[in-house]
Every structure is written in C-alpha cells, then in structure tokens.
Amino acid sequence: MKRLGFILVILMLIPSLASAWWSDDWGYKKKITLDVQKLKQDNVTIPASSYALIRLHTGNFSFFADLAEKGKDLRVLAADEQTPLKFYVEKLDPANEMAFIWVKLPEELAKESEPAIWLYYGNQKAVDAQDAAGSFDVNQVLSLPITANEAKDLTAYGNNPTEVTSTFSEGGLIGQAAVFTGSQVIRVPATPSLQMSPAAGWTVSTWIKIDQSQTNGVVLQRSGAGGNVTLSVVGQTATVEVEEGSKQTFQAPTPLSAGVWHHLALTANFNSLILYVDGVAAGSLGVSTRDLTSNIAIGSDEYGKRGLIGLLDQFSIYKVALDANAIKFDVEMQGQTVTLLTYGEDSTPDTEEGGESLIMGSLKNVTTDGWVIIGILGVMFVVSWLVMIIKAVVLSKVHSENKKFEEAYSRLGNQDISNLNTEGDDDEEYEEEEGSLLNLTKAHGSFTGSTIYRIYHVGVEEMNRRLKTAPDGSGNQLVLTPQAMNAVRATMDAKLIRELQKLNSQMVLLTIAISGGPFLGLLGTVIGVMITFAAIAVSGEVNVNAIAPGIAGALTATVAGLIVAIPCLFGYNYLGGQIKEITADMHVFVDEFVAKLSEQHT
Hints:
CATH topology of the domain at 140-319: Jelly Rolls
Largest sheet: 8 strands, antiparallel
CATH architecture of the domain at 140-319: Sandwich
Mean pLDDT: 82
Number of helices: 10
Low-confidence stretches: 1-19, 423-444, 469-476
C-alpha cells in the first residue's frame, strides 16, 4: 500500500511534464548559447561564479513591442528550462530597441557540453522578477554600473557614493558612462564590507575610455595607515603607484588606444599587485600593501588634484583576488569586440525550435545516481538479449536435429536399434565437443546438435557393455537381464538430466533481469525523488516547475527497469516453452528406446 501511494503521488505530478515549455503564461522564448569553441581558442573556461551580459538589439531580437512595461515579464532560466536564474536589467529602451540584461550563471554551466540559458518573455500580467542584489557574488562588494544618470551600488552591501560630481552621458560601454573632465570625483565612504586587505586579497575592475593623453589621470585612489594605492593613466599608459614608506611604480608596457574602451583590473594579495589590461597581465609589483580603509576616490585623487579626463563604466570592487581566467572571461563577456553569446531564434509554444522530445528532456534531468542505476540496467539489457538470441538459435538447431534423428530412428522398424550409432566414436572427444552449446558446426555422426541422439548414443553404448551370451535350445542369443535394462535406463536418464541442465543454463540470467530490473529501476526512482526534494528544501523553490524535472528524471530509471524486464519476460516464456517441448521429446524417446530394447534383448 505504501508503494501504491508513492506511485499515485508521482502520477499526480506527471501532467506537469506534458510540455517542455516553462510556463504557458509566457508567449516567447529565446535560447542563448555560450561559444565554447571561442573560449577554448582563448584558453578560457567558465568561472564558478560568473555573469553573462545579454545585449538585445534589432539584429538578434524582434519583439521589443511585446515586452511588458520595464521588462517585468523577462525571465532567465538555466539550460533545463526549469531553474530560474538571478538577473537584472541595466537598460531597456524599446523605442530604440536596445536592452542590457545581466544574468548570474549557474555553477554547473561549466560542465555542460553546450552551455546555454533561456530568455522567456511575452506576459503582460507578469510581476517584475529582477533581483539586482541577488545577481552578484558575495565577494563583489561594490558595483557601479552607470545607469539612470546616477552611480549607485547594486550589490546587497549598498555601498553607495556620498559624493558624485561627474556627469553622465550615453555612449558608455554598457548603457551610460560617467564623464570626468579633470576635477570631478565619485567618492565612496569606507564601510566594513569595503575593507581591502592584502591578507584576503582584493580586486578593482573597470572599463575606461580616453580621448587624449593624461597628465596623471587617477582612476582609483585609496589609502590606509601610512600608505596608499593609486591606479591611474599617465600619458596613455596604465600605471600603478604604491606608497609604503617609499613610492614604487610600475606601468603597462603598451599604451591605451585613444577613443577605444579598455578594461583595467588590479588585483592584490599578501605579497604582490598585478595589473591586467584587457584581460592580460601587464605588470606586477612584489610588495605587500597595508589594509586600505579610507574613503575611495574614483576619477580623481583624495584631494581632487589629479583628475581623469575620459569616461568610466562598470566600476567594481571584490574582496578577493580574482584569477586571470575570471578577469579574461569578464573582458570577453562584456567587451564589444568579442562575442561569447550566440542568440537563437525566438520561438512560441506552437513553433518551438526543433520540437525536442519530452523523453530527451527527461534524460537531461537524470542525476548521477540515476545514471549509475541505468548503466547497470543497460548491462543487464545487453546480457539478457545475448542470452535470448543465443538460446533461440541453439534451441532451434536442437529441435531441428531432434526431428531429423527421430525420423531416422522411426525408419529402423524391427532392425537393430544400434544401427544409427556411429561406429568407433571416441567418447572423450565427444564429451569435449558437446560441452559447448554454441558448437553448431562440428558433426558427431550424422545428427549434429541433437540431444536425443546424445541420449541414444549413451544408451547404445551402455547396452553393448551389458549384453552377454546365454545358451539356449536354439543356439546363441544376445540377452539383457532386468538389472541390465534398469542400468541402461538409468544411464539414459542421467544423460537426459545433463542435457536439460545445458538447455536451461544461463536462463537464470533472464529471471534475474525479470525480477531485478524493475526493483533496480524503482531504487533509482526513489533516490532521484529524494535528491529532488532535498534540493527543493535547500533552495526554497517550492513549485511544480521546480519538482517536475527531477521527478521526470527519477522516473526514467523505472522506465529503464521495465524496458529490461518486459522483453525478458516474453523471451523467458517462449524459450521455456521450447525447452519443455524438447524435454518431452527426450522423455518419450527414452521410453520408446527401452521398450524396443526389451523386445529385442529379453
């Protein structure tokens, strides 16, 4: 009853699997794929914590008019089209047909052979699902995308500037940009979350565009007890300056091109600073900086005397030192010259691209434990089919040879019943030959592969050993005593049992598949359901869309078990019937042989 109740619960969830579409309330979706080949060419992998920048424009998106107000109907899902991803819209301009959407990528995306996400839209009644604070990694403590004519921290830490004298303009790398003319500054107050300690490491990242040489244009300056760190542009060269008792400076070997957006990143750990320009390490300084605890000055130094003349966009600070791979990935994802995303066609429920089968969709959701079970069932499937095929061939051959021998035996009439026995057989050689059921070509006499002939052969051989000459009134006659007749029957019965053992050999594998297959499948299903509900408990996503994929994947194991068991059930019954028929023929022959033997030699 408990199992029946469990199955009923599962069946109640199956209707939600009727469509691969995430929700019928959404009218459109678009598949967005990461270019794995491009990443491989650049020796870049998808970091565990990373973001995708979706750039929508008239070239890859044709339904701006169908978006709800402020893009509140936008939803981003993982490759399984069931797992919602955190995202926020930096800019949406339906009039000019342009949008910038940031998406926090799932960690398991790096394991996918074709990493992709799905963008759903087209639901005027939807509620806004943007989550800017949740879209950032916990280690990112400051993010200042320049949007809506303001510089506001979008992370959950809320490290908003207290002073912003820069202006804002269109034409940024991503939406707007902050404009500095030599005296403007963005000042962010010191907070506990913004402490930059070399022991833990830190990273500063931004995009910059200059149109002229700089006297000493400060991008970032921050100080600590007795020292400071400055990232600036001198002339057209990115420069890092460290004051720790004495001033130390290093510059990038290549100047920045005027009128072009460049990415600058500075990382620090306990004993070095590394400067990256456009994702490539451009210089380092082996020095341990102090903890930087002062206010952060962006676009100028702390005194407003060394100001930048140019544009800044996407200014970020991390409380860890990002590795070269993560920095390079961000550059390629955000930059205009490299395109990592491939945008698929927009589709609707009626014109869904490719019409992917629900079975394939279910397979994508099978857990590792489920695949182990399915793998075991796959081995059972192959073995059972080999057994059934080989058995069918062997039994067919045996049945044919038995009929052939029975016809020859029936034509003997009153002749000597030993006439069909091959003269001069080497019993040892015969036993070796008959040991393999698959040996269908080597002949033993004229009746290859006949089990009845084998019984007949041992019966005749035993008869010849038991015959003796007994004098009577009519001369010499070959006779068998009743005890000898019993010995002949016993020998033939023993051979019959051995033949039955060989005919039934390996049939136990089919019974194992019939009884064990469904139970193994049920085990895989139960494990899959347990994992699904455990994941729901951790994530807090309690809805049918979160449950359905896991249940579908779990049920795949049960289906696999039934696929193994059902053919084996039919095959076992068919082969069993064939064996029973051959067994009956052998029993009948033994009785006939002994009866005829009694007529001739008693």
